[in-house]
TrEMBL record:
Its main location: Golgi. Pathway: Protein modification; protein glycosylation. It comes from Juglans regia (English walnut). It is found in: Golgi apparatus membrane. This is Hexosyltransferase. One of its GO terms (cellular component) is Golgi membrane. Keywords: Glycosyltransferase, Golgi apparatus, Manganese, Membrane, Signal-anchor, Transferase, Transmembrane, Transmembrane helix. Belongs to the glycosyltransferase 31 family.
């Protein structure tokens, strides 16, 4: 009778041990994919393997001592925990592989990426800019974007990274590239992308920005904003912090505009036929002046960027990449206030806006001259971001 019982228990637990063997095999295989990992990541992998071994040993002990119901419950909990660790590890490995690919083409970042020294921050703000937008950049620097030591202090103390993001020209080491190099040497506030600049390449630039930012910083949120938009950093940080516990969030002013098939209009969509009958609207997506996505979504873009389709309009492209995913869309109209008097009224009522711009211009009209006025009327105050709790 005892032999028969023992055989029954052993057979019952064979699938469990098979599952653990499979997970351990995945870990071992993962290690062979990354033969040149840094010492820090190898230690992390070994530590995870040791943790999994402890779980396996505990289950083995419980098999011989715990009652069946209690054992099954504990086993289920252990499997859930193990599955979560496997998912996290696979995500980290994917990010590292993606980081290495970026690092190969970006010699200045290669050492940091390959050693897996991503700095933990709260959010990374990429300000989309162009070669011809020097005056816009200066107006942003003179208003809502801290400069010099304050920019470094903001990153160090509040975990807020702000960079102008720009690629390079089609001609290697052109006068345009040298001008950006000179400006960066003066201000130290650029994130250079492996991307050829062009108005019709904004969707590609967006993908590369998120991939580059994820490889360089481990942030809770990644934000894209245009260089003709006024931003209140304290309100932005406070707004995002409310959604910090959510794994996959997409935050902005959501819209669903018409698909424009006519070639003579500004936002013509060459692939209009993909959206059904003429006159149909796009799926819901955030307007492109400013939006934020959580770490998991930015990582998803980084890993899958070669197969993510690019539509003519960058904001439409971003929205399309999240269709089919479990993503929570946050429609926050404080991220699309108008310029004075709109944002001024809201500020005086205690409802400070996250961002302000003119819909008619897809940004602040004549932003170089007007952004200082917007800042004086709708700005939260220079000390707001330092006192904000998030």
């Amino acid at each position: 009778m005892r032999n028969r019982s023992t055989e029954k228990i052993s057979a019952k637990w064979i699938p469990v041990f098979c599952i653990f063997s499979f997970f351990l095999g995945v870990l071992i295989t993962g290690r062979t994919w990354l033969p040149s990992e840094s010492n820090g990541q190898l230690m992390s992998l070994r530590r995870r393997e040791q943790e999994l071994q402890v779980v396996t040993d505990e289950l083995t002990t419980k098999t011989n001592s715990a009652p069946d119901n209690d054992l099954m419950e504990r086993t289920h909990e252990a499997l859930q925990s193990l599955d979560k660790q496997i998912s996290v590890l696979n995500m980290e490995l994917s990010v590292t592989r993606s980081s290495r690919e970026i690092g190969i083409s970006d010699g200045s970042a290669a050492i940091s990426l390959l050693s897996n020294e991503r700095k933990k921050v709260f959010m990374v703000i990429g300000i989309n800019t162009a070669f011809s937008s020097r005056k816009r950049r200066d107006s942003v620097r003179e208003t809502w974007m801290p400069q010099g030591e304050k920019l470094v202090q903001l990153e160090r103390e509040k975990g807020i990274v702000i960079r102008f993001m720009i690629g390079h020209s089609a001609t290697s080491n052109s006068i345009l590239d040298r001008a950006i190099d000179s400006e960066d040497a003066q201000h130290h506030d650029f994130l250079r992308l492996e991307h050829v600049e062009g108005y019709h390449e904004l969707s590609a630039k967006t993908k590369i920005f998120f991939a580059t930012a994820v490889a360089k910083w481990d942030a809770n949120f990644y934000v894209k904003v245009d260089d003709d938009v006024h931003v209140n950093l304290g309100m932005l940080a406070t707004t995002l912090a409310r959604h910090r516990s959510k794994p996959r969030v997409y935050i902005g002013c959501m819209k669903s505009g018409p698909v424009l098939s006519r070639r003579d209009v500004k936002y013509h969509e060459p692939e209009y036929w993909k959206f059904g009958e003429e006159g149909n609207k796009y799926f819901r997506h955030a307007t492109g002046q400013i939006y934020a996505i959580s770490k998991d979504l930015a990582t998803y873009i980084s890993i899958n960027q070669p197969i993510l389709h690019k539509y003519a309009n960058e904001d439409v492209s971003l929205g399309s990449w999240f269709i089919g995913l479990e993503v929570e869309q946050i429609d926050d109209h404080s991220m699309c206030c108008g310029t004075p008097p709109d944002c001024e009224w809201k500020t005086s009522a205690g409802n400070v806006c996250v961002a302000s711009f003119d819909w008619s211009c897809s940004g602040i009209c004549k932003s170089v001259e007007k952004i200082k006025y917007v800042h004086s009327k709708c700005g939260e105050g220079d000390g707001a971001v330092w006192s904000a709790l998030f």
